[in-house]
Amino acid sequence: MSNNMNLTLKVWRQKNAKAKGELVSYQADHVSPDMSFLEMLDVVNEGLIKKGDDPIHFDHDCREGICGSCSLHINGRPHGPKQGITTCQLHMRSFNDKDTIVIEPWRAEGFPVIKDLATDRSAFDRIQVAGGFISVNTGGAPDANVIPIPKVVADEAFNSATCIGCGACVAACKNASAMLFVSAKVSQLALLPQGQPERYRRVQAMVAQMDAEGFGSCTNTGACEAECPKEISITNIARMNRDYFTAKLLNSEE
Amino acid sequence: MSNLAKTFSSSLGKKLVMALTGIFLCTFLIVHLVGNLQLFKDDAGQAFNAYAYFMTHFGPIKIVSYLLYASIIIHAVYALLLTAANKKARPVAYVVQKGGQNSPWTSRNMGILGTILLIFIVVHMGDFWWKYHNAELPYAKYEISLENPKDIQVSELPYDANRLVHSDIVDVQAGKQIVVSKDLYKIVNNAFQTWWYVLLYVVAMAALSFHLIHGFKSAFQTIGWNNSNLVPIIRFLGVWVFGVLIPLAFAAMPLYFFFK
Predict the structure, then answer these.
(1) What's the pTM value of the predicted model, to 2 decimals?
(2) Nearest CB to B102: which of A77, A210, A249?
(3) Helix %, strand %, coil % for chain A, to 5?
(4) So what's the ipTM on this one?
(5) What is the assigned CATH class of domain A121-253?
(6) Which fold has domain A5-115?
(7) Closest chain A C-alpha to B11 CA, distance in angstroms
(8) CB B24 within 8 Å of CB B223
């Protein structure tokens, strides 16, 4: 095809968590603008494998923007230059022929590099385990709509729940703060009646775990919400702070 | 560690300290500005000197001023603690990071702006606060006609360790009120005759503007006060009152004395 592109990739290569990494240049020729970014990397990797080189390691799974596996800091921005999408939803038509594309892993103390572009995001799992759940006794399924929830509240909770835990918020933040992720996970339950019994215990436990994982603190730059593939709002952060301060300074129950 | 100490050493607790001290410092700016507007009065500094005496000798104001000094120090120390923790949170920097495409410049440079402001506060207090308290300043004697308060005769008195900082006598027989006060107004006037000193003040006020355009609204977001009816008002106040009006009015003072 005539509109295929020739690109120069500068990819972060790092053998393992302890090794010192560096940017390595690769040529990606005849790239179709209809390819997704990950498909482009697949093709580059096939070339590397054919030559007997180690392919570029990167995380991916569903490739339709809902699993939160893919990451990649592309030309200085998480999930690349477009808004509201993950890297797997980014297409090569967003780039121009002869572009140089710098690809780096998420950079955070809480997300150590495993290899190349793949990072260990299990810190997010540990934050979730600390309190991002509701305790429900098993038994007969309750009737739908037994507990009335106003539409605006349900919508807001749903918006918070769309977080896929990809970590772009941490990657975008100049402080590597995880507050958008944690606040979304706190909010999706804090907004709903089912989340009330553990509301204040939850926020304290999750914030404590967030701090223990070595994430930075929020300076309200708004970079996280600008880069979030699910466009989750920093309103969640204000809500989490409010709940945390209420729990620590105003309430005495727990 | 007690629970309260733990709360204030958490990331959110430290941010709360930044927000509360920041908002307190913002309210101080309003008081400081309103008081200093007396510099523009055409009375050879009589009102301003009386105000300076009141601010340094009225008990409750003194208590608030110590709270203020503490707030400045706490705000700076916590900023350092947070910055150190934030740097640790990203041990390996990106080769390419385009912060300009996802966040405003002011929000990413609060530390630099705050450092400029801290240096400014030290210089500013050294020049006026320290001199007023410790230096051998001359006195200004104002003879104000009782019939026409606009008729003010000013004369300079030399420093005298035994003289009261401020005295106010009404001499009915002579038909005038005689006010003698330490002449801070003169010190202000003299300081702002040097161009680079005026420039320093104007630059510092530009830094104040950028610091508050982000800082004021950010403080409310941190506290968690983001009611959708109030956010537009907070944003308006942050940009137009604290970001534009107040820094401009402060910057006008050195410029006024320089061009007077």
Answers:
(1) 0.94
(2) A77
(3) 40, 15, 45
(4) 0.93
(5) mainly alpha
(6) Ubiquitin-like (UB roll) (3.10.20)
(7) 6
(8) no
